[in-house]
Specification:
heterodimer; A: four-stranded antiparallel sheet; globular; B: 121 residues; four-stranded antiparallel sheet
């Protein structure tokens, strides 16, 4: 199975900050990576797919990059509604796996 | 409007069974692969399995953690996806989500609200 390691697992940031979350895969997954945002009590919502393609309707302050084994999700100018938990997901091979999550909290 | 609505969750005993349903609307269900994902209380996301579409013979995939115990099926005429869960274990306790696969570059682009399954004696 492909392991996805997210870092950090927790970060504290202020409104307006630029935030970067990293996802490392245990083996190469090309660009078969997606990023999700989840708020408490809600289903996840896709932000980015194919490592760097912004899902329709997602604000442009979100961006993704990377290929192979290292990927990043960047949030430019963090907004109050962005405080949530973020997960990466690989869809290169079965089983589909998720990273452990990064909780972004208000400083 | 695209909607996915899960039902069938509840309390089950270890070793017991439960069948979850996911009824969808607002899109052509038969075109899409569909997945189940679960989330144990306070934990991360775990993929539970996939149903491919009719064009791909409705074949399924499962992770080792549920293979042989869980079965995914679908009825395109009813716009419905199912998860039959047998031989339940306490570690199957989670919120279960159904999710739609994007056509094209893969990702889960629509999710239901989830249904809670508790396995306890």
């Amino acid at each position: 199975d492909i392991q996805l390691t997210q870092s950090p697992s927790f970060l504290s940031a202020s409104v307006g900050d630029r935030v970067t979350i990293t996802c490392r895969a245990s083996q190469g997954i090309s660009t078969y990576l997606a990023w999700y945002q989840q708020k408490p009590g809600k289903a996840p919502k896709v932000l980015i797919y194919a490592a760097s393609t912004l899902q329709s309707g997602v604000p442009s302050r979100f961006s993704g990059s990377g290929s192979g084994t290292e990927f990043t999700l960047t949030i430019n100018s963090l907004q109050p509604e962005d405080f949530a938990t973020y997960f990466c997901q690989q869809l290169n091979s079965y089983p589909v796996t998720f990273g452990g999550g990064t909780k972004v909290e208000i400083k | 409007e695209v909607q996915l609505v899960e039902s069938g969750g509840g309390l089950a005993q270890p070793g017991g069974s439960l069948r979850l349903s996911c009824v969808v609307s607002g899109f052509t269900f038969s075109d899409h692969y569909m997945d189940w994902v679960r989330q144990a209380p306070g934990k991360g996301l775990e993929w539970v399995g996939r149903s491919r579409n009719k064009a791909n013979s409705y074949t399924t995939e499962y992770p080792a953690s549920v293979k042989g115990r869980f079965t995914i099926s679908r009825d395109d005429s009813k716009n419905s996806l199912y998860l039959q869960m047998n031989s339940l274990k306490t570690e199957d306790t989670a919120v279960y989500y159904c999710a739609r696969d994007r056509v094209g570059a893969p990702a889960f682009d629509m999710w239901g609200q989830g249904t809670m399954v508790t396995v306890s004696s």
